[in-house]
Amino acid sequence: MASRLELKGKFVQIKEPSRDAVSDTAPVEKTVKDIVGNVRERGDAAVREYSIAFDKADVANFEVTEEEKKKAVADLDPQTREDTEFAIANVRRFAEAQLATILPLEIESLPGLHLGHRVIPIETIGCYVPGGRYPLLSAPVMTIVPAKVAGCEQVIACLPPNAHPAMIAGCHLAGADRIFRVGGAQAIAAMAYGTATIPAVDKIVGPGNAFVNEAKRQVFGQVGIDQLAGPSEIFIVADETGNAAMIATDLLAQAEHDVRTRVGLVTTDRKLAQGVLKEVEKQLGDLPTAAVAGAAWKDYGEITVVDDEDAMVAYADCIATEHLQVHTRDPQATAKKIRNYGSLFIGELASVVYSDKCCGTNHTLPTMAAGRYTGGLWVGSYVKVVTHQWLDERGVAAVAPAAVRQSATEKLEGHRRAAALRLSPKQLNSL
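Structure (tokenized):
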């Protein structure tokens, strides 16, 4: 795969980003290291101090009670509850279909040599549920529902103490076993190491801000993590059939997530590029979230013109964006040529917003070009595929001689003895 530097000269940028999302996160490392260390050492006391300092919330009891969960659900607007349950049903349906493709395996590789794998749910999952800037009602659905479908025994959720009460309802409806009012890096540290109140988990999933992301990086190894998810991203690849107003609308829809959202258009048509540039500025004029979306567009937005579809595909594979929309004359054909992305939206009717909210695919996706080597969160993220083997005398006769010889070659006498132990004297003498 070509790097963007190698592609230089094959494209023209109508608008370049003025900042880099990766380097912009560097200053948080030291702060997060202190938070993680303090929470690990002092537990709930440190969590409470950081909640007061960062969230301006002195929470008496971190865990949400059953009565509070029921009230949060009861207080939901009926249409909001119906829409949330619609999203839950769609995500569950797709996760169940995905789980059905992860099958146990048992084969007899050689006579008497039996190999296989089992699919085992991870026991305890910690879901980080962001919700500081907006009441992101879809967030708990995406992390909690697949965990329950996978069969995880305990699923806990942590969300900022100032999150909208509807977020608690969303966590409860999605199936969280326990919910805690703890946000930020301190929540990640608490789930990784455990406190008197918050249990340690086996794996942490869910997106968050730069501090949450850095905390996940620092605790990885103590616990599993889904991925290191940076600021949200959307790119659109389009030819001359693209609709400038629609493309601008979709770019700004994602840009309003955060001032560090990365948004862009890659097109074969210079006229469309100029049209989108004008349309973005026009739409920012009456967009209520323009303060956020406009900042993201100014700092991280880009529009690139390439010579042909092959160059457009190469550029898309190079950036490996989180969300990739395809607006071309034959979007299905174009989509088949692209291999690096978090989730693909084929045709102009497939908006990222549908997946963000309720259509059924997961919106927790790889960013910062991680789409080159991984996909997003899915039901398979909550299970372990672990191997096993068993042998009868025929299997031992088939594999032990090679294991004995290889161990001797490697000068590993303990290995040689263990391999030879199961052979008969006659078999050993024949080596």
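The chain has three domains: 4-21+230-360, 28-229, 392-429. The mean pLDDT is 94.
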